[in-house]
Amino acid sequence: MDIKGFLSSEGRRKSFGDEYKSFKLLGGERRRQSVATWTTLRPFLPAAVPLLEELNDLHEEKRNVVIDHHRNNVKQRHKSGDLTPNDAGPIDGSVNKSAVPWYKKDFTENSLEDDVNKSQNSWSAADQQLAQDVSSTAVLTSRVGEEIEDLEITEIDRGNWSGRFDFLMSLLGYSVGLGNVWRFPYLAYSNGGGAFLFPFIIMFILLGFPLMFLELSFGQFAALGPAAIFDRICPLLNGIGHAMVCVSCMVAFYYTVIIGWAFLYMFKSFASELPWERCHKDWASERCYSHKDAADCTATNGSVYYLQNCFNKTEVERLNISSLAHNKSDRAPPAQDYFERDILGVTESIEDIGGLQWQIVLCLLLTWTLTFLSLSKGVKSVGKVVYFTALFPYVVLTILFFRGVTLDGAKDGIIYYLTPKFDKLIVAETWVKAAVQIFFALSPAWGGLITLSSYNKFHNNCFKDSLIVGVGNVCTSIYAGFVIFSIVGYLAKELETPIDTVVDEGPGLAFIVFPDVVTRLPIPPLWSFLFFFMLITLGMGSEFALLETVMTAVQDTYPPLRQKKVFVVLGVCVFGFLGGLVVCTEGGMYVLQLMDTYSASFAVFIMAILECLIIGWIYGADRFLRDIETMIGQRSKFWHYFFIFFWKFLTPATLIFLLLFNLVDYKRMSYKKKPYPVWAELLGWFMTFIPVLVIICMGIWRFYRSPKEKTFVMKLKKMLHDTPKWGPASKIPRSDSSLDIEGGKSRIVTNPGFTTTGNETRI
Asked: What Rg value do the Cα atoms of the chain yield, rounded?
């Protein structure tokens, strides 16, 4: 290349300078605006590097040639009058040097030699600057590919919620699930009634809200799911994200089966008479007692209903069964036998797994089909479905509430629910159960909160979202308690038994107690349909987030799969359907109880503790809060110190206490008072330790694969430090970021003051 000729051309030299400045300006102001911009720059950089290197390699002789050439050129132009005072500025020499180039100054015979010397100094300085620019450009060139890859992952392929309410509804549907309806009311009545609300709210403040806000801001800041985000902030513990995905996957397997049960009951509700209103010989046990059959029987004078038969007065006296017929302690409602003996076909133990219950299999297939259709287009499609799945349960709860409070005995049930037993507050178990309930209600450390928030816009106010959904979850649990206990009070009045003998939790409440209640109401099919449809929408809202966590992990780990999202969703749904078949067997109830107890128990506490360790101590709570301020603005000092104290001390200490208490208080599993065999419990513990093993194994693998360092300690420190890729998502600083090349290092500067340099993030 003719450097001499290139530099002798004023226009080309100026053009190159302007082009290079434009390049720096473009890279500075729109560094992450779009992949197309970087694709345009990419061919320019390799072309610029050889030029800069050639300039940097000029020997002293070539520089002298350049200077001599310009000396002669300046003399010639000065003699010809091309350089005039008007071109140079004031004749007195008070030239604005920052605005007027050195070659346009007012040249005189006396100043010519000074100008030549200045030109020589200018080119020496330019030569040094060019050497730095070569290094800077090379660094920038090597980073372009990485930036394009990051932009493709977060900007183009990932997608965003269509609006803030899409996210809020998805988050509400995820956090408000079946547990709010069928677990909280039972916990409240058995742990102090109205007094239980006090530890429940306290634990929301100490545990639930800090963890929820941590995960929502964590996912929103980096715009990555759990499987990818931990690898950037703490590579040694990157297995935490994959462990969260394992938990979500295991829970999704059996959660869809419960939704399948609700579908089956909803379909059974399309009948003039519900199949569990009376005792049918096909599935009824000797204990089965139908209040409708009994009412029909006693309508005849002197007749008694016993063992599903109607005995007249003479037969009762002859068989001496009067006392037995009126013994209420040994009765079972038809709904119980129908659920256990017809729907599930429960075997004697988990060792007898039995065959598939094809009704449940078909409903499970329907559940996964609807899930596939809802998730096939990512958050854009599920964001619309959740408006219905999140809000419809409140409509049904309100209908059931107004119907329930009008029933005879509802007042007794509500009083029983709210009557405080303050002596329970001094029992540690009450506080532990309140903490466990709020922990599993909001579902931190499952990966769902990180996943859902990762699709937010960068400046979304996740602090406000945490408050809205967190408080909404607590209020929903309390509200559901009024609904359930108004109905339970009515049932106890009907059965003439104490309330504590009627109330139940979990599947027993949803598929035995409530189905029995609706048979005693006018138009039973209507109430049955509404209730089970509500369970379906509650379950589907949580299921969407569980599966979105799994699919986001797959696509974040293998970005090319984002272009084949439909096939990813299909693969996950097929895998989930096949995995759920074991719960559709006659012994499936034992498997479901085993998975429900062990899959999301101790391991979730461990993951939450490690999460607090990373954010609170390794990365730094104060540092993370300043990152959050770049998203949502500065909070008050109260909230700043509140979260620092909780994330670093109080929340992890509470989690450690809960983990140890549950380990010490562990009791052998049983179902219907039948203990599980040892091998089944060992299987359960294996499910518990799968996420823990994932964390350990992936940490070892990541440490082994990392670049070598001088010492083991240096390598360990590096593995605990956030990587250069950690930071806000590439889509964030669209108009607020700049790229600066300084000293051979690339730097992102984002208003208001966010800076990432190498491995460092600071305000």
From this structure: 36
How many angstroms separate the CA atoms of 244 and 548, rounded? Answer: 12
- The CA–CA distances, whole Å, from 376 to 129, 170, 262, 549, 551 equal 53, 16, 23, 14, 10
- pLDDT score of 301 more than 90: no
10-14, 66-70, 208-212: segment of lowest average pLDDT: 10-14
The amino acid occupying position 67 is I
Give per-residue burial for 176-215: e unless 16+ CB within 10 Å, then b: bbbbbbbbbbbbbbbbbbbbbbbbbbebbebbbbbbbbbb
Q: Is 542 annotated as a binding residue?
A: yes
CA distance 635 to 48: 45
What is the identity of the amino acid at 303? S
Look up residue 647 and give its DSSP letter: I
List the Cα angle 493/495/499 in 5-degree steps: 60
pLDDT exceeds 90 at position 249: yes
Q: What is the DSSP letter of 672?
A: T
* Residue 547 to residue 242: CA distance in whole angstroms: 14
Structure tokens of 650?
A: 């109080």
| 3-state secondary structure at position 497 | coil
pTM above 0.90, yes or no: no
Q: Is the C-alpha dihedral spanning 383, 385, 388, 394 positive or negative? A: negative
CA atoms within 13 Å, Cβ hemisphere of 410: 16
Give the integer Cα–Cα distance in Å for 405 and 403.
Answer: 6
Does CATH number 3.40.50.300 belong to domain 158-273+336-704?
no
Mean pLDDT, residues 664-684 taken together: 90
What does DSSP assign to residue 356? B
473 appears as a binding residue in the annotation: yes
Question: Residue 72 annotated as binding?
Answer: no
Q: How far apart are CA 722 and CA 354, in angstroms?
A: 51
Cβ burial, residue 322 (10 Å; 0-12/13-18/19+): middle
Contact assessment for residue 66 and residue 9, using Cβ atoms and an 8 Å cutoff = no
pLDDT digits over 128-144, tens only? 555 555 455 444 444 44
| Strand pairing category for 674-675 and 760-762 | unpaired
**Domain layout of the chain by residue ranges:** 3-150, 158-273+336-704, 291-331, 706-762
Task: Give the CA count within 13 Å in the CB-facing half-sphere of 41.
Answer: 27
Distance CA 504, CA 516 (A): 12
Tens-place pLDDT, residues 509-531: 889 889 999 998 899 999 999 99
> What element of type H or E holds 760?
strand 760-762
**What integer is the mean pLDDT of 364-384?**
88
CA 733 – CA 752 distance, rounded (Å): 10
Count CB atoms within 10 A of the CB of residue 348.
12
Residues 6+ apart with CB under 8 A from 614: 230, 233, 234, 237, 240
The residue among 539, 530, 517, 521 whose CA lies nearest residue 370 is 539
Alpha-carbon distance 96 to 364, whole Å?
79
180 is in an annotated binding site: yes
Distance of CA 361 to the CA centre of its chain: 29
The response to whether 73 counts as a known ligand-binding position is: no
User: What is the rounded distance in angstroms from the CA atom of residue 438 to the CA atom of residue 207?
Assistant: 8
In angstroms, the CA 15 to CA 388 distance is 60
